[in-house]
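subagent[fold] <- orchestrator: predict structure for attached chain, return tokens only, no commentary.
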Amino acid sequence: MDGSYRFLSSIAEIGLSADIFTVVWATFLGIVIGMIPGLTATLGVALVTTLTFSMEPGTAILVLVCTYIGAIYGGGRTAILLNIPGTPANAASVLDGFPLAKQGKAGEAMAIATTGSFLGSIVGMMGLALIAPWLAEFALDFTSFEFFWLAVLGIVICGQLTAMEDPLKGWIAGFFGLLISMVGQESLHAYSRFSYGILSLEGGFGLLPVLVGAFGCAEVFCVMRQEATELTASAVRSVWRSALSSFRYIKTWVRSGIIGTFMGVVPGVGEDMGAWVSYAAAKKASRNPAEFGKGSQEGLLAAETGNNAAVPGALIPVLTLAIPGSAPAAVLLAAMIIHGLRPGPLIMITQPDFFYSVVAMVFWASCAMFVLGLLMTRPLLYVLRIRREWLMGIIFVLCVVGSFAIAGRIFDVWVMIGFGLIGFLMRETGFPVAPMILGVVLGPILDNNLRRSLSISQGNPLDFVSRPISAVLVLLVLAVVLVSVPSLQRLIRRVITRKPLVKSDG
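subagent[fold] -> orchestrator:
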């Protein structure tokens, strides 16, 4: 009852104040960022983070949450009209969104995508409000042993799911991020590690310059190599009628919303997996699975519901465990820390008002996304006519300014450029960037809890697996590894399918 009152109070506080205008322009900005091919939600949140240093913490987080939700939704427009997902989360929307546009149903497709995104965000918001308090209470039983294994599990899962064809590359990227986070003075004894006598390295690599470089600067390098896209000629009509008709697929959007929420909860999985799993589940449960991939309204609705539901889902581990559920959530977590907020298991005790404020932010951002998406369908299409080449110079300048502004060090600009080159090379060689960033974020958590655990156990490694929760987390880590390694897969398959020898009569 107390939670409901806090939630309603937070909704009223935002809705009856000037913050409602912040919701509108921040959501609009997120939609525009998501619509432009090459500008991902992660890049958008990272760039906007550099613009929030002078804001109050609550207002800054409101801007970032709205930008996050708007960007995930906006990417669906390019998926429908250009056959190019604006963000990786909208890749599944291409399968049915673009065929609908080619059939002259672009307006209907965008209305369905808008409704699905809104419904997914609402279902995810309900999951955030219900699951996060329970998870925070459960996490109070976690000790340094459990947090160590939780960090390892997040990196292993993220590496496996972001590099499906070769999970080893994802794991290498994740543990490379852990190595990066070790540079500088460690927190317990201020002992310098990997600084090599360079004074600037004593403070380590700043999280924001690394984020902006790996996603922003690297994106500039990648996009400048691509050709510009052109707007697909397609009629825009039947927007409102299609939006209302989408509500009749109640089983689809409820199922996709729940799947997307839980995909968001898993550390490092993110919105793209929420969309793909929701799409696959909808196709399996559909009465007309043959229509999927040829312009199915149900398929498009499932994909867009799943990816947006994953956004509030990704905020659940951010707020309760201080572990990001996706790459944009990692940037949001960094922004919370920069603004002096401390998410974690104690948030429901020390900052309950802030938690319910975040839930209210998701609600208002979802409403703004729905209204703007339907009212501005035609005007927003002109955003797609902006050449990406013109934007890259502006984005690079923002990357430089944002990296420099946080600490006023030119060293951070060089860090941004350096990690931009690293991110570019990783993309060219097939290594996912998201596990590396997750490793950078989780590095201090893993390092501090590892050394704290070793101090408590006096160096006894058995204590890491003897506790019940730790044992479960260890088994989960091993299960992910066993499922992902091809050689082990073949070995297990051979053992299971091996038949007993039968002697011949001869």
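orchestrator: received. Logging for downstream: The chain has one domain: 2-488. The chain has a mean pLDDT of 81.
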